[in-house]
Write a structure and sequence with these properties.
- The chain is an alpha+beta fold.
- It has helices spanning 93-96, 110-119, 131-145, 159-170, 178-185, 189-200, 204-221, 226-232, 238-249, 253-261; strands at 20-27, 41-48, 51-55, 58-62, 66-70, 76-80, 84-91, 104-107, 148-149, 153-154.
- A six-stranded antiparallel beta sheet has the order 1-7-2-5-8-9. It has a four-stranded antiparallel beta sheet with strand order 6-3-4-10.
């Protein structure tokens, strides 16, 4: 089935009698989806462009070659922070249970990318047995082997902490310390220090570092140098930023910058 014949409505994919289905949608910069959930799990993925995804539990920034695993029933909504070519898959709930019940970012291997694009060339109800079924099984195998990227921004509910976190997200390079944030929202620094782990599971500095990592991923995907990113995020030196990055992710920002500069294989999808 040609891509143009496929529904762009996620609801049309929830009851297809296939374990894995694929959806294609292109969206312009600034477009947002409404908050929704699925009966199936979703691998929310874009071959090009960047998305911001928000749930009650947290926020994720997804550049190309990264995808978000969203379990069944999790309410989420996305915003395109550039022009996006969305190429997502849905996995029926019983099979999806093997991949966990928490949202997580995974690295999309070149093989997984090509498998998803190949499945989009098949009919939505691909013949059984047949090529589509083989592609679906390979997709599940690649998902099982996919590396999780520990980048997530847990989102608070307390109004004071919410104000602080929103301000930091709006200006990730801010030099304000927790005492200054406390003054701004009418709370004590001790209160904020206590609220961060209670509301987000992370201490203040850890939470800010997650924001920095997410911002860095976006800037790396846009081709900015490591030095430019370190300066924009308020680090005293490129080496200090790189050390933080490697300590958390196990890889240097230069590793990801090199990866993003490598062109993806051209594909009609």
């Amino acid at each position: 089935m040609p891509d143009s014949a496929r529904s762009k409505d996620h609801r049309d994919y929830q009851h297809v009698p296939r374990v894995v289905t694929a959806i294609s949608r292109d969206v312009e910069h600034g477009v947002s989806g409404t908050p929704h959930s699925h009966e199936r799990a979703q691998l929310l993925y874009a071959t090009n462009g960047m998305m911001r995804v928000l749930t009650d539990a947290g926020m994720w920034i997804l550049p190309p070659r990264r995808a978000l695993w969203v379990p069944p029933g999790v309410v989420h909504h996305w915003t395109a922070i550039s022009k996006v070519t969305m190429r997502s898959i849905y996995v029926e709930a019983q099979t999806a249970a093997a991949f966990g019940d928490q949202c997580r970012v995974i690295e999309v291997s070149p093989l997984l990318r090509e498998l998803i694009l190949a499945l989009l060339e098949e009919p939505i109800e691909y013949p059984l047995p047949g090529r589509g079924e083989h592609l679906a099984m390979l997709i599940l195998s690649e998902l099982k082997a996919a590396e999780t990227v520990p980048v997530a921004i847990p989102w608070p509910r307390d109004r004071r902490l919410l104000a602080v976190c929103s301000a930091i997200m709006a200006d990730p390079g801010s030099s304000r310390n927790i005492e200054q944030w406390a003054d701004q929202v009418g709370a004590s620094a001790r209160t904020l220090i206590r609220l961060f782990p209670r509301e987000t599971g992370l201490h203040y500095r850890q939470w800010v570092q997650q924001v920095h990592l997410a911002e860095a991923f976006g800037r790396l995907a846009q081709g900015q140098s490591v030095g430019e990113i370190a300066a924009a995020l308020g680090y005293a030196s490129t080496s200090a930023f790189s050390a933080m990055f490697r300590r958390i992710l196990g890889k240097t920002p230069q590793h990801y910058l090199t990866e993003w500069r490598q062109p993806l294989t051209q594909h009609p999808g």
